[in-house]
Specification:
Structural class: alpha+beta
Mean pLDDT: 87
Order of helices and strands: HEEEE
Low-confidence stretches: none
Shape: flat
Length: 68
Amino acid sequence: MAKPVFEREVRDMLHGYTHRGPDDEGVYVAPEVALGMRRLSIIDLKAGHQPVANEDGSVWVVLNGRNL
C-alpha cells in the first residue's frame, strides 16, 4: 500500500527550486497522485496557473505550454 502524500510535503519540495519558477506555484493532491509545479512568467503573466483540470475535474495535468 502506498504512503499518503500531503500537500505540505509537495509544497516543501517545490520550495527547493523556487529560483527556477519564482512567479507561481500550483499543487494538486488526491489519494493516488500528487502534482506540483513552479512557473516563470515570461509571457501571459496573469494566466497559466497549473495544475490544469478538464471540465469535470476528473483529469489533472502539469504541462509545458511552450509553442513549438
